[in-house]
Design brief:
The protein is of the alpha+beta class and about 1000 residues long. It has 29 helices and 36 strands. The N terminus and C terminus are likely disordered. It comes from Streptomyces sp. NBC_01393.
Length: about 1000
C-alpha cells in the first residue's frame, strides 16, 4: 500500500482501499437506498390502483397505464435502436488507418480511452435517448387513444372535403409521428457525425478529403431521411392550414384558411413538397455518386424556395391583393369561419330577435301586474349571503359553507321555486383542538343541507330558510345528511375503525358514529398501511392504534377532483353544486369534451373566457381544463358524486358528440346512457355556467351571420364588467326563473347582458333555457336592442343608482357607524319591451357579522325606486299597486291568538319591530339595537306564554329551535326569534318578494 507524507521526518498517512466492514456497510446502505426508492415508487403506483379500484373505475387506470407503458417502450426502443444502429454503423464504416495529422493524433487518446468501454458507452447513450423519447411518447396517450378510437363527425371541411375527425383525431397523431421522426433523424445524424469524426471518417484540419466515401454515403442517407420527413411535413402543412391559428383583427384568434392561405400558402406548400422529394432523392443518390455537389445544390434550392415561395410570395399577395380590397377577398373565407365557429361552440341555433328596449304600449297598472309574473326575482344573492348562512346555520365552529352558494329549483305545493342552497361542510380550522386524531379520525364529515327561498327575505332581512337546524329539517324530507365528500373537504380521513367519529351535537351533547359506507380503501393490510404512510408522508398510519379492523381511508374528496380522476379526458366545470336526490345528497358536476382541431372554428382560451368577478374572488370556481386552447366544446357528460359514499357516476348527455363517442370507445363501460338519469336527478340538472360563458364570449362577435358586417366590426359587443365588484372582471351570468317575450310561462334560465365594444349602453340581453329535460333546453335567445336608441347597461344603471340624491343619502345613512353596504346581483329582466333592473342591497354592521337585506333598488324606463321591499319598489316605479297581490305595507302583521297574554306580547313585538324599522331609516343604530332587544324579549314572552298554554292543553310544547337555525341552548347562531317562520306568518309577505 502506498504511503504519503510531508517528508522524511513528517507523519506518514497510510491510504488504501476501505476495509471489508466499511465496504459491506456501504453496500448495505446502497441496497437499502435502492429498496427505499423502489418502495416509494411502488407506494405511488399501489395507492393509485387501490383508489381506482375503490371507485370502480379500475379500467381507466389500467387502460391509461398500459397505453403509457406501450408508448414508452415502443418509441423508446425505436429511438434507442435508431441512434444505436447509426453509432454502430458509423463505427463499422470507420477507416482502417487514420490520417497522419495532429488532429488524428489528438483523437487517438480518446479512442484508446473509450476502447475498453465501447459497448457500455453505446448502451448508456442508447438507454438515455430511449428513456427521454419514451417518456415524451407516453405523454401522448390521449393523442394515441383518440387516433385509434376516433369516430367520424360526418361533417367535412370546406377546403379539402375531409371529415372533421381527420383534423381532430388523425392529424395530431401524424404530427407527433413526424416530430418523433425528425428527432430520431437529427439525433442519429449528430451521433453518426461525432462517431465518424472520432474514428477518422470526418476530418476538419487533416490534409486530403474531408470525409471518407463511407461516411459521405452514411450521412447523406440520414440527411435524405431528414429532407424526406420535411417533404411529409410540407404535405401535412397543407391540411394544417385548416386548423392554423392566426391573428385577424375582425375575429381575434382566427382558425382556418384565409385568402392568402388558399391562394399563396397552399400552392407554395405543394411546390415545396415536390422540391423536398427531389432533394431527398439527390441525397440518397450519393450512395452511388459519392459526391455532395447535387444534394447541396438541391438543399440550397429547397431553402431558397422556402424563403421565396413560402415566405415572400404570400407576403406579396397579402400586401398587393388582399389589403387593397380586404373585405371582398376575405368574405368567402369569413363565411366559412362563421359557420364552423357557430357549429363548433353550439351557438348555430341561437335565436336573435329585435327588442325595443322601452315600453310604449301598456299603461302602468298593466306593467305593474306583469312585473309580478315575468320573473321570480331573486333577492337572495348566493354570492353575498354565505356569511349569513354561516352565522345563522353554522351551529358549530367546525362546520362551514362555501363562499359562493348555489341556486337550484325545488318544488313545493306543486310549484318550482328558486332556492339558495349550501352544505354544512367540515371546517377543520374551527375544531376545538387540532391534532392528528381530531383532524383525521374524529372530525371527518359535515352534516346537513341548508336552503332558503331565493326570492324573499324575512322581516329582518335574513333568508327564509326552507331547510335548517342540526340535524337539518324542513321541506326536503328525509335524506342521508352526513357529508363525507364536498368542496371544502380536502384532507384525508380514516373512518370505520375503533375510533368513533363526531356526527353532530345537540342539547344532549355530542353524537358519535362510525362510517358504514363502502368508500375508501381498507387499511387492514400492512402493505396498504405502509404504502399510505409513504404516500401521505405520515408514519403514524403504520403503527397507530386508532387504526384497526374496518378502518378505511378516504381521500380525493372534492367532487371536481373525483370526476377529473375517473375521467381524465374531460374538462370540468368550475361550479359543482349539491342537490338532494332520492334521499341522498348528490354533487352534480358538468363536464365537457373539447378539441382544438375543428377546421375553420376560431379558438378560445378557457381560462380567460370563463373568468369573471366570482372566479377572481374564488379560484375554486375556475374551470379544470385538459386543453386550455380549444375550438370545439360540448357539455357531453353530467356527473354525480354521492356526498356520503363518494360514488362517481358519469352520464352521457350529448348523445351525438363524436368526441365523447371516441372516449367511450377508448374507455368502455365508464359512461352510463342518458336513459339512466332518474327523473329526480333530471329535475336538478341545469345548463352549465362555464359553457355559457364561453358561448357568450363567442357571441360578442359571432352573433352576426353576414360576412361584410362581421368584417366591418360595427356590431362587436363585449361582456360588461361587474358593476358591483371592484376587481374589473366580467359580470357573471345569473340563474333566474323568468319568462321571455312571446313565452307563456317562466323557465329556469341563465342570463347575461352585452354592451357595445368600448361603451356602457346595452346592446343585447342573452339567455339560455337552463331547465334540463324540457324541449327548449339549451336554446340561446338574444334580445337585440336598437342601435338608434341608447338603453342603459349595467354600469350606467349602477351609476344612476349611486348618483340619485335621495338614494345616495339613504346609502349614507345605511353606512352610519361601522356598517358596510354590499350590493347584490344586478338582475336584468325583459318586461314588455323594456328592461327591469333589480338589485338587492345588504347592510353588514354593528354587532352583526353577516349581511342583511335592507333595501331593494329597482329601475324601469328611467324611473328609479329604493325601498324596503321589492313590492314597494315596484309600486313606486310603476306608480301603481299590484292587482294580483294585497297591498304591501312593508310591516309585519302580528298573528292572532285566543290567549290574551300571547296577543299582548305579539302586539309589543309589532311595536318594537316598527320602531326598529323607523330607526333604521334614520340611521339611528343605537335606537335600532334597543328596538331589536325589545322585539326579542316580546317574542320570547309570547313563545313562553304559548308553550304554557300548550302544556296546559296537553301539547308537547315548543321546539328547541325557532325554525330558523337559532339554537336556544346557546350552541347555535345568534338571530332573534323573530326570524322564525312560525312566529310571524306574514314575515315572508313583508319582504316584498311577491
Amino acid at each position: 500500500m502506498p504511503d504519503r507524507g510531508g517528508g522524511p521526518t513528517g507523519p506518514r498517512i497510510r491510504v488504501g482501499r476501505p476495509s471489508r466492514r466499511v465496504r459491506t456497510l456501504l453496500m448495505t446502505l446502497g441496497v437499502l437506498a435502492v429498496l427505499a426508492m423502489s418502495f416509494v415508487m411502488f407506494a405511488g403506483f399501489w395507492t393509485d390502483w387501490l383508489w381506482y379500484r375503490s371507485v370502480h373505475y379500475s379500467s381507466v387506470f389500467t387502460t391509461t397505464l398500459w397505453t403509457k407503458i406501450g408508448l414508452f417502450f415502443v418509441f423508446g426502443l425505436l429511438m434507442a435502436a435508431a441512434v444505436g444502429f447509426n453509432i454502430w454503423l458509423a463505427h463499422r464504416l470507420r477507416p482502417p488507418l487514420s490520417a497522419m495529422s495532429m488532429e488524428q493524433q489528438s483523437l487517438d487518446r480518446y479512442r484508446m480511452g473509450i476502447a475498453p468501454y465501447k459497448r457500455w458507452l453505446l448502451l448508456a447513450i442508447t438507454s438515455l435517448v430511449g428513456l427521454i423519447a419514451g417518456a415524451s411518447a407516453s405523454g401522448q396517450w390521449r393523442t394515441w387513444l383518440m387516433w385509434v378510437n376516433g369516430v367520424p363527425f360526418h361533417q367535412k371541411d370546406p377546403q379539402f372535403h375531409l371529415d372533421v375527425s381527420f383534423y381532430a383525431f388523425d392529424l395530431p397523431w401524424y404530427r407527433f409521428l413526424l416530430g418523433f421522426g425528425f428527432a430520431a433523424a437529427v439525433l442519429s445524424l449528430i451521433a453518426a457525425a461525432l462517431t465518424h469524426y472520432l474514428y477518422g471518417g470526418l476530418r476538419i484540419t487533416s490534409p486530403g478529403a474531408r470525409a471518407t466515401a463511407a461516411a459521405t454515403g452514411h450521412l447523406s442517407v440520414l440527411l435524405g431521411v431528414f429532407v424526406a420527413l420535411k417533404a411529409v411535413a410540407y404535405w401535412l402543412d397543407r391540411y394544417g392550414l385548416a386548423v392554423k391559428s392566426s391573428d385577424f383583427k375582425a375575429t381575434g384568434n382566427w382558425t382556418g384558411l384565409r385568402y392568402v392561405d388558399a391562394n399563396a400558402y397552399l400552392p407554395a406548400k405543394t411546390i415545396l413538397f415536390c422540391i423536398a422529394v427531389i432533394c431527398a432523392l439527390l441525397f440518397f443518390a450519393t450512395l452511388w455518386r459519392r459526391t455532395w455537389q447535387l444534394p447541396v445544390i438541391g438543399f440550397g434550392l429547397m431553402v431558397l424556395s422556402a424563403v421565396l415561395i413560402g415566405g415572400l410570395y404570400p407576403a406579396i399577395v397579402q400586401k398587393f391583393q388582399v389589403e387593397p380590397n380586404e373585405q371582398a377577398k376575405e368574405a368567402p373565407y369569413v363565411e366559412k369561419n362563421l359557420k364552423a365557429t357557430r357549429d363548433a361552440y353550439g351557438i348555430a341555433g341561437t335565436d336573435v330577435q329585435d327588442y325595443a328596449g322601452a315600453s310604449d304600449t301598456k299603461d302602468k297598472a298593466e306593467l305593474r301586474d306583469d312585473a309580478d309574473t315575468v320573473a321570480s326575482i331573486r333577492l337572495m344573492d348566493p354570492n353575498i349571503v354565505s356569511p349569513t348562512f354561516q352565522q345563522l346555520q353554522q351551529v358549530r365552529n367546525y362546520y362551514g359553507f362555501p363562499s359562493n352558494l348555489d341556486v337550484d329549483r325545488y318544488t313545493k305545493d306543486g310549484k318550482d321555486q328558486d332556492t339558495v342552497i349550501g352544505l354544512r361542510e367540515l371546517n377543520l380550522a374551527g375544531i376545538p383542538k387540532s391534532n392528528w386524531i381530531n383532524d383525521h379520525f374524529r372530525y371527518t364529515h359535515g352534516y346537513g343541507v341548508v336552503a332558503s327561498k331565493g326570492t324573499t327575505a324575512d322581516s329582518e332581512g335574513r333568508p327564509v330558510f326552507t331547510e335548517y337546524d342540526l340535524p337539518s329539517k324542513g321541506d326536503l324530507g328525509a335524506y342521508q345528511q352526513q357529508i363525507y365528500y364536498g368542496e371544502k373537504t380536502t384532507q384525508y380521513s380514516i373512518v370505520g375503525g375503533p375510533q368513533k367519529e363526531i356526527d353532530y351535537s345537540d342539547d344532549s351533547g355530542e353524537k358519535t358514529t362510525s362510517y358504514k359506507g363502502k368508500s375508501g380503501i381498507s387499511l387492514s393490510s400492512p402493505v396498504n398501511r405502509a404504502a399510505y404512510a409513504v404516500a401521505f408522508g405520515e408514519p403514524q398510519i403504520m403503527y397507530s392504534g386508532a387504526i384497526g379492523e374496518g378502518s378505511r381511508i378516504l381521500y380525493n374528496r372534492t367532487p371536481k377532483e373525483r370526476v377529473e380522476a375517473v375521467a381524465p379526458w374531460l374538462t370540468i366545470d368550475g361550479d359543482a353544486y349539491p342537490a338532494v336526490v332520492d334521499g341522498k345528497i348528490q354533487w352534480i358536476v358538468d363536464a365537457y369534451t373539447t378539441t382544438n382541431g375543428y377546421p375553420y372554428a376560431s379558438r378560445t382560451t378557457l381560462g380567460d373566457t370563463t373568468a369573471d368577478s366570482l372566479t377572481a374572488a374564488n379560484n375554486q370556481r375556475a374551470v379544470v381544463a385538459q386543453q386550455n386552447q380549444v375550438n370545439y366544446i360540448r357539455n357531453s357528460v353530467k356527473a354525480t358524486v354521492d356526498a356520503y359514499t363518494g360514488d362517481v357516476k358519469l352520464y352521457q348527455w350529448d348523445t351525438k358528440d363524436p368526441v365523447l363517442k371516441t372516449w367511450m370507445k377508448a374507455f368502455p363501460n365508464t359512461v352510463k346512457s342518458k336513459d339512466s338519469i332518474s327523473p329526480a336527478l333530471m329535475a336538478h340538472l341545469r345548463y352549465p355556467q362555464d359553457l355559457f360563458k364561453v358561448q357568450r364570449e363567442l357571441l360578442t362577435r359571432y352573433h352576426v351571420k353576414d360576412a361584410q358586417t362581421f368584417l366591418s366590426g360595427s356590431e362587436v359587443w363585449q361582456v360588461p364588467d361587474d358593476p358591483t365588484n371592484k376587481s374589473g372582471s366580467a359580470v357573471p351570468p345569473y340563474y333566474l326563473s323568468m319568462k321571455l317575450p312571446g313565452k307563456s310561462s317562466q323557465a329556469f334560465s341563465l342570463t347575461t347582458t352585452m354592451t357595445p365594444n368600448g361603451r356602457d349602453n346595452l346592446s343585447a340581453f342573452v339567455s339560455v333555457n337552463a331547465e334540463a329535460g324540457t324541449p327548449g333546453y339549451g336554446k340561446i335567445s338574444i334580445l337585440k336592442l336598437p342601435t338608434g336608441r341608447t338603453v342603459d347597461g349595467p354600469k350606467r344603471v349602477q351609476s344612476q343608482f349611486n348618483s340619485e340624491p335621495s338614494i345616495a343619502e339613504s346609502i349614507r345613512l345605511l353606512r352610519g357607524g361601522d356598517s358596510e353596504v354590499e350590493y347584490g346581483n344586478l338582475l336584468t329582466v325583459p318586461l314588455d319591451g323594456g328592461l327591469l333592473y333589480v338589485e338587492p342591497v345588504y347592510v353588514r354592521g354593528g354587532d352583526l357579522k353577516y349581511p342583511l337585506l335592507r333595501k331593494v333598488l329597482v329601475t324601469y324606463g328611467g324611473n328609479t325606486a329604493f325601498e324596503d321591499t321589492l313590492g314597494q319598489a315596484l309600486n313606486k316605479v310603476f306608480e301603481a299597486e299590484s292587482s294580483t297581490e294585497p297591498p304591501d305595507e312593508g310591516t309585519t302583521k302580528p298573528p292572532t291568538s285566543s290567549n290574551p297574554t300571547v296577543q299582548a306580547a305579539l302586539a309589543d313585538a309589532q311595536k318594537a319591530f316598527d320602531q326598529g324599522q323607523e330607526a333604521l331609516k334614520k340611521g339611528d343604530w343605537k335606537a335600532y339595537g334597543e328596538a331589536q332587544k325589545d322585539l326579542e324579549d316580546a317574542l320570547k314572552r309570547a313563545e313562553d306564554a304559548q308553550a304554557k298554554a300548550d302544556k296546559a292543553a296537553g301539547g308537547s310544547g315548543a321546539d328547541k329551535t325557532d325554525g330558523k337555525g337559532t339554537d336556544k341552548s346557546g350552541t347555535g347562531g345568534s338571530p332573534s326569534p323573530s326570524s322564525s317562520p312560525s312566529s310571524s306568518p306574514s314575515s315572508e309577505k313583508s319582504s316584498g318578494s311577491s
